[in-house]
């Protein structure tokens, strides 16, 4: 079950709104009873909004990757930092302790 479906079932807030439909969509919706019609419309809106939110997050992530933030290294090279991390992890494995 998607997050959209879960949120629809969890919150049953009720309000009325005007929705302009194409003639074809109106005819197809008229084949459903009111409860199913409402559920279908809410689910479709929730799924579309979820897709839009995912797209916005994707664009935000991609723009962040285009302009990565540089963090100062305080003069420590990547190689030295990696060597220190590996050495510390090796010691932890050998002694069975964790550094704090």
Automatic annotation (TrEMBL):
Annotated region described as Disordered, given as residue ranges: 67-100
Species assigned in the record: Leucothrix pacifica
Stated name of the protein: Uncharacterized protein
Composition-biased stretches (Basic and acidic residues): 80-91
């Amino acid at each position: 079950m998607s997050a959209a479906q879960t949120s629809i079932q969890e919150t049953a807030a009720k309000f009325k709104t005007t929705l302009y439909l194409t003639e074809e969509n109106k005819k197809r919706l008229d084949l459903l009873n009111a409860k199913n019609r409402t559920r279908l419309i809410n689910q479709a809106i929730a799924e579309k909004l979820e897709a839009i939110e995912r797209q916005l997050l994707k664009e935000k992530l991609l723009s962040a990757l285009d302009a990565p933030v540089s963090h100062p290294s305080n003069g420590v090279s990547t190689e030295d930092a990696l060597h220190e991390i590996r050495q510390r992890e090796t010691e932890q494995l050998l002694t069975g302790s964790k550094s704090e």
